[in-house]
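Dear support,

I submitted the protein below through the web form. The confirmation email said the job was done, but the results page showed an empty box. After a refresh the structure appeared. I'm attaching both so you can tell me whether what I see now is the final result or a partial one.
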Amino acid sequence: MTSLLQRWVTEQAERRPDATAVVMHGARLTYEELDASSNRLARTLKAAGCEQGDRVGLMLAKSPLAIVSMVGTLKADCTYVPLDPSSPAPRVAKIVESAEPRVILAEARAASLLSTLLSNTRLRSSIALGWMDSDRTRGQAFNPTFSLEDVERAPSDPLDYRNGPAHPAHILFTSGSTGMPKGVVIQHSNVIHFVEWARRYFNLGPTDRISGHPPLHFDLSTFDVFGTFASGGELHLVPPEINLLPNALAEFIRRAELTQWFSVPSLLSYMAKFDVVQFNDFPALRRLLWCGEVFPTPALRYWMARLPHATFTNLYGPTETTIASSYYTVPTCPEDDGVAIPIGTPCEGEELLVLSETRRPVSTGEVGDLYIRGVGLSPGYWRDPDKTRAAFVPNPMSSDPADRLYRTGDLAKIGVGGLVYFLGRADSQIKSRGYRIELGEIETALNAMDFIQECAVVAIPTDGFEGTVICCAYVPRPAVSVTPAVVRKELARVLPSPMLPSRWMAFERLPRNANGKFDRRQLQEAFTNDEAVAAEQP
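What the results page shows now:
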């Protein structure tokens, strides 16, 4: 077993230098080219002052260059922090202020965001900029420390590494209920354990052509990238411009002759809704995997009926436990739409525990809180010991103080044969379009608006693409007339698009329960029953 993620690239380059590693828009990068380019970037980062343990922000759209940047950062003994170029500047600024990267790697497409970010004098003075774009003129305004030309001139010979398996490989920032994104620290060993299990279980190899659909700040992409490199296959990055185009995605799978597709199920449901999959379509596709939310059984049946030659596997796991902690390969197409699909059994080195409020095991069939234990557990949240202690708790069934459980916040039960079933959230966190979203973060942003007197954000399930629809109930301040379009426009300045509510309802006063708290159940019913609300789109 390898000890560092970047070693997989070097091993493949030594074994099969001319084999294709990454493909996008017809451009190909071989393993030898990927290894050499990432070596050059690593040496450039070190020359720019990066030291072991430093963070490097990647303000790069999904591309072969972004993959080179990930690997090069690891080869410099640093930790990469993906920054979503499409996110609002205030949110990216919070992440940058928390991560304190030594260097940010950026390109022309992020020029506007970068300009806003670096208007903060403190950030501008503390962060070096690597301009990873051939258009130097756009980078001059930011006075970059080094450019892509500098990287291309650097030596490509191998480096010696000081990092080990327990060092952080990346920090992924997820939604936080206080309005401050949480940085989940993921070690090299966390990813390696999952990928090595997946390589054996799915029989991944050099003939595999693997999809890269999620953005690189989404943890599913970690398996796409490093699962491909571990097996020596080809990573086919899905262009972001076709992410939500069902026919284009189906054609992409056909033309690329993908052997594996991995995405959130809401996208698969969306493709089923538009009926873009033919019977016996995608003949090269050997396996279809999903993770991040529940895959509605009707849509699963649609896919399984059309692709009898493929296997279908449900993966489950929060970001804090590294990609996935359990799996269930559906043996046959479900007989009807009401069949529940389990999240299954633990991956190797993992354990799922369904516990009572006192953290004792519950009986078969009884609903309890889902905890995860094992090799995938993150060491915790970046520079946030309080949140880490709250989420990663001592195992009450062990005397070893280092034995921890991650409290997922999900409800579950153990069914027949020991299979685990996901039953929903126990708190205000939801999954929409596969993204983990804290409804409290949306409320925090809304409450900061001068024209909002009070608000509540709830979620309701749907069979549509979103999976779960985010709904906003709000009360304008007295004598203020404000439309959903105005609220949404202001909210879009501080939150990324997956977190924006799609249904809106104005109230004179929000309903409350006997405790004086917002009656969220009543609000959910209002959004579910009022057909006019769905049409009130800003």
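Response: this is the final, complete result; the empty box was a page-load delay. Residues 429-535 form a domain with the GMP Synthetase; Chain A, domain 3 fold (CATH 3.30.300.30).
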